[in-house]
């Protein structure tokens, strides 16, 4: 009876003491072990999950607008399925176009190979239009590559074993990428369907683990993904459209294909000059010197305006991040995570800069005393 009264009057909680502390330590260890095991099990699919999260964040405003216009039914399946199908078509349609174009070009490549094996590789017209050394360059090409033996020797260097090995590796990589893309679409469907619940749970978890600061960091990273999508993807597509028009009027072969490649390359800093440089070289090989100069000049003007004026406003304005840190985040992210780094790098930089700003904010009591 006395023990019961003492236990009832004891102000300490019932779960305090060494046993409670050991149980808390065991729970933390169990959570860490299970988390590590789950990451190890899913490590092959983590890129697909991250891509699904990025796509869900980037397309979240558009999906929310569609949801307000067409409210989902009880099962909430039709609208997420349609949105996921549209995303799949956006990615698959260009690949189909590239495949059809490659199949068309295969015939020309085969004709070139047969001609090179029979007659050698003729000297391009650009050698005759060089400002200096035209005669020497043309003579070297004629003696080295313009006879049948040179073409046969060049083609025989590609032995069957290396070609078969390259084909197997390429096929294995295509299958792997296709599986990851399919898993990304499945995860994206569930994120579209349950996006609000998932976002609410993430914010609650951040708030419980790190307090209000954790929720602010999560919101800042989401805003960074939005800004990066606008600054990289949309600006890159704009560069591809403008330079594709320049390719068309300059007479570059396959301007639509090169414009699409320019749009993809422009999403990576300093990637667009590689593509419009190739377009200029194609024009030079055909003897069109002035159009090649126009392509290079237009390419540098478009990329300079996009990289120094448009992107800093779109990315830095959304993330409140200096463009230097945006650029370092993009380059470091691409080097570390590949294409995922285009979005993960700026998001991590934005979170770090936010934490630094909050840590270095000076209150009235923290300000140094002014000296007389």
Tags for this model:
372 residues; mainly alpha; 2 domains
Compact summary:
With 372 residues, the protein is mostly helical.
Descriptive account of the structure:
By secondary structure, the chain is an all-alpha fold. The chain has 14 helices and no strands. Helix 5 runs antiparallel to helix 8, helix 11 runs antiparallel to helix 12 and helix 13 crosses helix 14. The protein is elongated and about 90 Å long. It starts with a helix and ends in a 12-residue tail after the last helix. Its main location: membrane. It is a multi-pass membrane protein. Belongs to the autoinducer-2 exporter (AI-2E) (TC 2.A.86) family. This is AI-2E family transporter.
Mean pLDDT: 77
Determine the number of helices (DSSP H or I, runs of at least 4 residues).
14
Terminal-residue CA separation? 70 Å
> Which stretches are low in confidence, meaning pLDDT under 50 for 5 or more residues running?
none
Strand content: under 5%
What is the general shape?
elongated
In N-to-C order, the SSE pattern is: HHHHHHHHHHHHHH
Main sheet?
none
Provide the gyration radius in Å. Answer: 29 Å
Provide the number of structural domains: 2
Question: Helix proportion of residues, in percent?
Answer: over 70%
SS-derived structural category: mainly alpha
Query: What is the count of β-strands?
Result: 0
GO cellular component, one term: membrane
Main location: membrane
Pfam families: AI-2E_transport
Keywords: Membrane, Transmembrane, Transmembrane helix
